Amino acid sequence: MDSIDRELIALLRDNARTPVMTLAKKLKVARATVQNRLTRLEESGIIMGYTIRLQSDAIERGVRAITSIGISGHHASEVKHALRGHPNVVAIHTTNGRWDLMAELRAETLEAFDKALNTIRSIPHIENTETSILLSTFKM
Fold first, then answer.
1. Based on CB atoms within 10 Å of each CB, which residue in 4, 29, 34, 128 is the most buried?
2. Could you tell me which CATH number the domain at 58-131 has?
């Protein structure tokens, strides 16, 4: 990746729907150059997809939390597999230190969150958890 690729990615982060011609003008390169770079970045897996941004109120309602998870023995892959199918799990992160995994959770209400957390805690090989409810988010 060179400086043009990095600048192209920055422009797409700002607005992934920016037309190729507009990107070319901003980068001061030919349209075909932008298209070729996009294709290369996609095929190499650097760009894995395009997404939308929603007004924060539209989807951020409800309870959001990070749950730190301790796993007994060498059963991380089994626990990750079980968490992947859970409807309240938004993302799973591996980590170092005291905890084996971090799970991002969402639920509509505190009651639904409590039920989801109890379901997660009952997954075999989850030894212990610690949950922090997210109160505010500041985008960087």
1. 34
2. 3.30.70.920
Domain with CATH 3.30.70.920 in the chain: 58-131
Band the pLDDT of 50: cuts 50, 70, 90: confident
The H or E element that residue 81 is part of is helix 76-84
CB 88 within 8 A of CB 116: yes
Give me the count of residues in the chain: 140
Instruction: Please list, in sequence order, all residues whose beta carbon lies within 8 angstroms of the beta carbon of residue 3, skipping any fewer than 6 positions away.
Output: none
d(C-alpha 124, C-alpha 108), whole Å = 25
Residue 120: exposed, middle, or buried by beta-carbon count in 10 A (0-12, 13-18, 19+)? buried
3 sits in which H/E element: helix 3-14
Question: Are the C-beta atoms of 104 and 64 separated by less than 8 Å?
Answer: yes
CA of residue 136 relative to chain centroid, distance = 17
Q: List where CATH 1.10.10.10 sits in the chain.
A: 1-42
pLDDT digits (tens, 9 = 90+) for 84-114: 889 899 999 999 989 999 999 999 999 999 9
* CATH classification (class only), 1-42: mainly alpha
